[in-house]
Description:
Layout: H1 4-55, E1 74-78, E2 83-86, E3 90-94, E4 119-121, E5 127-135, E6 138-151, E7 156-164, H2 166-218, H3 233-282, H4 289-313, E8 321-323, H5 325-334, E9 343-347, E10 353-355, H6 357-374, E11 379-386, E12 389-396, H7 422-425, H8 430-440, E13 444-449, E14 455-462
Parallel strand pairs: 9-11
Antiparallel strand pairs: 1-2, 1-7, 3-5, 4-6, 5-6, 6-7, 8-10, 11-12, 12-14, 13-14
Helix pairs in contact: 1-2, 2-3, 3-4, 4-8, 5-6, 6-8
Amino acid sequence: MRSVRARAALGATLVVAVALIAAGTAVLLSLRANLIDSTDLQAEVAARDVASQIALGVPYSKLELPDEDDERPVQVVGDDGRVLAVSEHLQAVSGTGSADVRPQEQPRAGDDDDDPGRGEVSSDDPGFASGTATVDGDSADYRFASVEVRLDDDRTATVHAGAPLTAEQDAVTTVRDAMLVGLPLLLAVVGSVTWLVTRRALGPVEGIRREMAAITRSEDLSRRVSEPASGDEVARLARTTNETLAALEASVERQRRFVADASHELRSPIASLRTQLEVGAAHPELLDVPGAVEDTVRLQQLAADLLLLARLDAGERPGSAALDPAQLLTEEVARRSGDRVPVEMAVTQGLQVAGSRAQLGRVIGNLLDNAQRHAVASVTASVRREGGRIVLSVADDGGGVPEEQRERIFERFVRLDDARTRDEGGAGLGLAIARDVAHRHGGTLTVGRSPAGGAVFELALPDAARG
């Protein structure tokens, strides 16, 4: 059963069926118990009435027993098991003290056996039992109440009086039959209503599925699904679906732009290198070996940047090694002894960050490259703790970054100075890589204005020493 509507309708029907069966059973049991209690009360009243007559000394042959129309048969049994009195029209009985329906010895008026003498009705609660009785040829189920009479001569007589269970059985049967007829009808209504309600509720979901299938076939990520105005879970699903489509569209567009820009950036050094090699092959004396090496290095660096960006986009997780940012900065500056502008450092030792040594070293290197490229006479790098974060900053005294361009410079393949050569400005991937790595490490990378008037880049990472 693959349909959600069918499963919901079946589930609701089963739940209601179980609940109704349980409730119906409880109702029937409660009704039967109440009716039996009422029948017991009728039998007890009849038994105590006859027992009171015996206690007053009325002879057994003159007891006023319920008549035929009363439908409450009575049987009086002595302590020796003899039947002392019985209703006139009782033809058979079970569930009492004896199965006999006639006195075993017919006493005559005035005989001692016929005169029970006085006594008292037992104050104990009567006993109750289920049985059958046949009155004037009609057999039925009965409830019998047993009341004991203690006579003055230490004998006892037990009065068994019955009340028919016909009314109880008829009532229970009527209610049961009504339930057996009404339950299937009610379950059919519940199942139908659940089916219709579920179908209406899931209609927008089916619409979302169809639209998503159409988007998949057309590969047009600019399309969106309709958002219901209900504001319920389905509307939120549609909204989330559209947000996912928007993110997917942006990702695909970013990937297309990345591939296009990468192809463009790779084309220049490859074409230059090929030209130099072709000229060298035709005229060895004209081969520009330093230029070919420089183009090869640029091509190698660009390929490395593209591979790193591809790994970052694929969700590569950084390491979790404990690193000293001051040591990373010192090592990176030491490799730049021949740079055009020397780097001045002001670091705090003993700080710790967690991450990848290679990736964080690459970020520091990119920031120093950028500062060296734009500095006039000085580049300053520092490491310090601010609150719960470790901040590494690199500042220069160059022209700075206009405020309106401070976010744009972190985009891929972006160079603010379009007139400069590629050799001087690079491919425009360094800062994009630096920010991506910073985000992967749970940090941030921002740019502002340095005290010297140039740009200052600040890499803020979580303090690993504080957990």
